[in-house]
Amino acid sequence: MSLAAVAAEKAPSEHVREFTLANGLDVVVIPDHRAPVVTQMVWYKAGAADEPPGSSGIAHFLEHLMFKGTDKIPTGQFSKIIAKNGGEDNAFTNHDVTAYFQRVAADRLPTVMAMEADRMVNLRLTSEDVKTERDVILEERRSRVDNDPGSLLQEQMMAALYRNHPYGIPIIGWEHEMKKLSREDALAFYHRFYAPENAILIVAGDVEPGEVRALAENTFGKIPSHGPHIKRARPQEPEHDAPVTVTMEDPRAGRTTVQRYYVVPSYPSAKPGEAEAIDLLMRIAAHGATSRIYKRLVVEQKVAASAGGWYTDSGLDSGRAGFYAIAGSAHTAEDLEKAIDGVIAELRNKGVTQAELDRARAAHIAEFIYNADSITRMARQYGWRLAAGMSVEDVEEWPDRLKQVTVDDIRAVARKYLIENDSVTGILTPAPEYTSSIGDKPAAQAAGNGKS
Amino acid sequence: MTIRSSLFPRMARLGAPLVAVALLATPAAAKGSGMKIQEVTSPGGIKAWLVESHANPLIAMRFAFRGGASQDGPGNEGVAYFVTAMMDEGAGDLDSEAFQEREQELAMRMDFDAGRDVMLGSLQTLTENKDKVFDVLRLAMAEPRFDQDALERVRAQILAGLKFDENDPETVASIAWDKLAFHNHPYGRPVKGTMQSVAAITADDLHDYVRRVFARDKLVISVVGDIDAEELGKALDKIFGDLPAKSELTAVPDASPTLGPKREVIVMDVPQSVAQFGLRGIKRHDDDFIPAYVLNYIVGGGGFSSRLMEEVREKRGLAYSVYSNIYPYQHGAVFVGNVATKNEAVGRSLAVIQEELKRMAEQGPSEEDLKSAKAYLTGAYALRFESSTSIASQLLWIQIEDLGIDYVKKRNDLVEAVTMDDIKRVAKRMLEPDHLLTTIVGKPVEPAATARQGTPG
After folding, report:
1. Please, is A196 exposed, middle or buried when counting C-beta atoms within 10 Å of its C-beta (0-12, 13-18, 19+)?
2. Is residue A131 less than 8 Å (CB to CB) from chain B?
3. How would CATH label the architecture of A244-429?
4. Domains along chain B?
5. Could you report the per-residue pLDDT of B52-84, keeping only the tens digit for each?
6. Given A18, A63, A116, A197, the catalytic residue
7. Domain A8-222 grouped into CATH 3.30.830.10
8. pLDDT on residue A15
9. Pick among B7, B8, B316 to test the A interface (most A CBs inside 10 A)
10. Does B270 sit within 8 Å of A443, measured CB to CB?
């Protein structure tokens, strides 16, 4: 494979350079010379929603196995070599993407880039590695999900929310399928999706674009493109004809909690302007102590000890808006559900005020500026958007697009998307017969103060 | 600007085999950046460390008052934590709603956090809002309202949090461990308090804590970002000048953590048990602290490079996470580790951990382990200075621990100077596996087997 010329080159902003290698790898460089360090991230456009049926968890399992070894890197040495270079590394998997990253001194970029490029195509796995690591992901599932009733409920709610789309399958996998994941399953997923034209390389920090380009051509650039077009064929969601309620009783629940999820558009899937309006709607509705849900449920009606919500905005095929409320000591799930319904009805019927919109917008735009303080957060911010098919311009023009959102836009998206049939309500209650076997064990210093 | 394609000199390394590249000398960044720390003294005599950076229109400030949760009296635990949750619930003329709307309008980030020994504060603001934001911070500390309705609301939230914590195995293991190690010492009490203590906290308790602790004589401050020394000096007087000159701290005695072996099992119906294990640690100003810090990296602080990760996860697949830390509290240090593993494998995991600690105490690490640890610790030090907030945090802790304004420059040399003899001495001193204190939360199914392995409890 010869070193071909750069196929495309764009300079959409003063902060960011973007180009594509001949083999299809997209490269984004975010120079920032404040500290002599760099963050390298490789984002693969493949995640848990791209798994073959019956192999849930394979995308995440492969992410673990990517740290095993290649012809050049002996088994188990990848992270150790990064550490010996004074670097930190990790990876994460979600439904749409799998990303690997390192933070190192700028003069170690050639080493980590060569290593990242190497494992894009040269992964070597032994059966023993696979077997041991499968035990590790099963422990990870117990830590993240099985030991926590809140996570178990979330898993059930996601499965109810998505009747057909694989977003309903947990990223970590269903336990019975995880137990059967094999070396062959991992390699099949790897060979299908891990290829230069299906990845984005982001380098942020104390480097110049020309330097990164030369390094990338010498490493990733030598990897042939996959050949046949990599297709992501996912079952899509039908129209929903009824809302669903999921109820769980668990002695470990602590307090009664009610959650409400809605399927809504994400930034990648939305019509122009709609995601921005939903983003601001959800900040006004559910972010922090000035939010609608907090004011109504916690301050005024006093049915909840705490309440809030979120907008999952980066999904390729759809996003989610969520609300939650944690009961005070004397209130029931019905009280909470009714109160949440009241907040939604008010948003749909009356929308939000101009003052609320102005405050939310100022806070959102400030967050964009705050993010620029950290090269790692910058790399992540661009990575999420670009991996979902958006452009550097989309990221940079986001504050301007927020400025165009009106109170009418917000009421319109509330009416269009906060609808009953696209919702799932989750209710978690402590089992009534529960008597604590640990007595009056107090709590730890680590947890937050429960305000958001 | 156009994209340049010139090759930089560092490119020459590319052709070398990867593994050989891995053990080259210290990364350039470890040799120190050009970061300049100024010591600013305000006209009113308040000191702060400042790193000026005008790259982004942002200012990050971190500050701390000595005297954290350890100032909570017996039966009154949770006051410091309660204060942190009340700091944005109204001050001066602003009730909680008005205060929080003001914060949002100004797009400011203000947070308080109760450590064992220090009350920590952090502030971030856009340059354009700085004067207004500094005034909100002043108001929050000098004139907190602690109104009754806000107090009851926050109390309900803390109680709900404690209720969840009761069912969180990791939290339960941690609190039980602190109690086992520190008994009636303030470090043995939970920072967030208990159901009973939080139920009884009053506005007077909160006001009393603020009056005693939020004072200028126990204050350290670091600032990074878009502000110069002169302007910062004026701002310091404005923000902190209204606070009392002198604190009224309760003396905290030195603690002497319990020596094991002791093992406490707290039964909880979960598929995976969480265990916390630990020993006496080494305090920050002990000559052995830096060697102990390097040793902890090798044992359990170094992620995939650590011995415990290698033995427990990589070789045996027994756990997703296993790690250790040194907590060099002001009045007593501990070395503490955690592992989470299915109920059937708890005994085995703990036996593997104990065996590894024992091996380390008897033989020490390999030369290779020590060399790798130093390479990481010195090379990665620069990563802590990546953003304004992370720099401010580093400089704050250097002040809290009283390490001197030149510590950033000295720190890697201190790590480099650690010898194998130092490590072996400290391993013998700190890693005494026969004295392990362990708390296990879950349904461990091998109590008999673990007992046979020499850890009665």
Report:
1. buried
2. yes
3. 2-Layer Sandwich (3.30)
4. 38-240 (3.30.830.10), 262-384+404-452 (3.30.830.10)
5. 999 999 999 999 999 999 999 999 999 999 999
6. A63
7. yes
8. 78
9. B8
10. no
